[in-house]
């Protein structure tokens, strides 16, 4: 009988611990993740931060990046993903990388939606699905931004047009 109670208690404990996992939505997959941290340096943490800070600051308090700005973000994110990051900085760098990735994906989907809605040959529903995709990535960027925003006290997150 005591064994049964222990199993029941363990089951309840696991169920309670799992609630946050099942109730929160998972972020989309980051298609261009950081490469694994090498065991020994030299590391490029300072270069990573300098390039990331410059890029993130450039679209502070604006609408979602588009056109040349969007290409710059996508290019920068891919460059950052290839850098050698120290084990101590890896988790923070991964969050910054994910933020830039989600921003690039949101901007790309929004740009696609704009071009689709401007075309008379494409059904509006396709443009609407691109807007939904842009909003999904914007939400992911916002959640990731919440993890790194303390590093950027003078930066305001970009917005999605209404």
Number of domains: 1
Measured by DSSP, the beta-strand proportion falls in under 5%
Number of helices: 5
**How far is the N terminus from the C terminus?**
61 Å
Question: Level of helix content?
Answer: 55-70%
Average of pLDDT: 84
Instruction: Assign the structural class, choosing from mainly alpha, mainly beta, alpha/beta, alpha+beta, or little secondary structure.
Output: mainly alpha
Low-confidence stretches: 8-24
The 3D shape can be described as elongated
Order of helices and strands: HHHHH
The count of strands amounts to 0
Largest sheet: none
Radius of gyration: 20 Å
Give structural notes.
The chain is mostly helical and 162 residues long. The chain has one domain. Helices cover 65% and strands 0% of the residues. It has five helices and no strands. Helix 2 packs antiparallel against helix 3 and helix 4 runs antiparallel to helix 5. The longest helix has 29 residues.
Brief descriptors of the model:
162 residues; mainly alpha
List the helices and strands and how they pair.
Layout: H1 2-23, H2 45-58, H3 67-81, H4 90-118, H5 124-148
Helix pairs in contact: 2-3, 2-4, 3-4, 4-5
State the gist of this model.
This protein is an all-alpha fold and 162 residues long. The protein has one domain (31-151). It has five helices and no strands.
């Amino acid at each position: 009988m005591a064994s049964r109670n222990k199993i029941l208690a363990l089951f309840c404990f696991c169920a309670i611990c799992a609630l946050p996992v099942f109730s929160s939505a998972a972020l989309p997959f980051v298609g261009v993740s950081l490469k694994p941290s090498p065991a020994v340096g030299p590391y490029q943490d300072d270069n990573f931060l300098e390039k990331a800070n410059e890029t993130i600051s450039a679209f502070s308090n604006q609408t979602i990046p588009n056109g040349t700005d969007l290409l710059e973000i996508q290019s920068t994110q891919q460059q950052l993903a290839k850098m050698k990051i120290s084990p101590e900085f890896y988790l923070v760098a991964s969050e910054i990388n994910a933020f830039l990735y989600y921003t690039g994906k949101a901007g790309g989907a929004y740009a696609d939606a704009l071009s689709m809605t401007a075309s008379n040959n494409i059904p509006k529903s396709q443009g609407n699905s691109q807007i939904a995709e842009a909003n999904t990535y914007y939400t992911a960027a916002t959640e990731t931004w919440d993890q790194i925003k303390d590093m950027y006290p003078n930066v305001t997150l970009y917005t999605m047009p209404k």
